[in-house]
Amino acid sequence: MQKVNRLQPFFENLVFERDDNQMIVNFGPQHPSSHGQLRLVLELDGELVSKATPDVGYLHRGMEKMAENMIYNEFLPTTDRMDYIASTSNNYGFALAVEKLIDLDVPRRAKVIRMLLLELSRILHIYFGLLVMH
Description:
It is built from four helices and three strands; from the N terminus they run βββαααα. It has helices at residues 63-68, 72-80, 87-101, 108-133, and strands spanning 22-27, 38-45, 48-56. Helix 2 packs antiparallel against helix 3.
């Protein structure tokens, strides 16, 4: 008879059996596509933070793996959620890749509309960057 291989659950930064008042909590990121990704691993002694370990660049959410199990029109709205400022750029990149793969000829009108939306998105990026720096 074949032995079933079961993995023991691994809970990151969690210790269930403790005699003291220590607790470890994940704090953040506040929004998965916001700028300045930061997650803090906080060690609490009661309500007092005794240690904070930063984890910068905490962004990857497995979008590629999600896309493997979806068809083109199911995944396209998900590209909006990768970055709340560059949603148009992400849509364009994904749509262009699919169109080249299936050798689709896009009408000139659609190309012009896309270009206008991408330029508006680029201008929005510039303004957003200026606002964040001040």
